[in-house]
Amino acid sequence: MDKASQPYEDVVEFSREIIKNRKNFNNDAIAKVYILLVNVATNKGDVVRAFQFATDGLALPSIEGTTKLNLMLKVADGYYYKGKHYRVLETANQAIELAEQTLNIKYQLIAFSYRSMAFALLAKYQQAINDLYQVERLISDHQELSNHTELLDILAVSHYYLGDFQTVVAIYQNIIKTKYGLSQLHNIEDSYYNLAKAYLQLGQLDDAYNAFWEVK
Question: Closest by alpha carbon to 74, among 92, 101, 96?
Fold first, then answer.
């Protein structure tokens, strides 16, 4: 099932039962329940609860590598929305180290993207560019991840704060095309909104107007 289509109340009720009977499950299984909760809270636009679910899950001891990485990056996303850019940087550093240890290319890419975004937001532009080079190198070796929308969205933020608005436009056009191709239209209005902002920065007012028109 596409995580964007998971019904909120059903997942919350299911998760509540699992957590209430947590003695019957190992911590990795409980952590995956928290990941489900993060996903449905994010889909509802409840960033505060999503962040709380992610931090609760990450606090569990003895979590396996991939599950821990997933939660770490969701925590990083929460820090981004809270404007705590140094905490994004700190969490991304930890995620990069764990992803490299576990040879998880997908999470390496996402973690480097978060770190690049954090560097850009902190005006550490050369470090941001260096991490973008790392991402480009990894993607060139793993083309199957080149249209991963979560990854692309984070990269777009990095390029936006580096002032590379033409690249931002290209990224969001790709994201929108990919979402339509996969029929994953949940929150596509966010992609159109960010595309419109990039067009405004480029002074392409007609294109910005058309993109804003798609935000419903």
Answer: 92
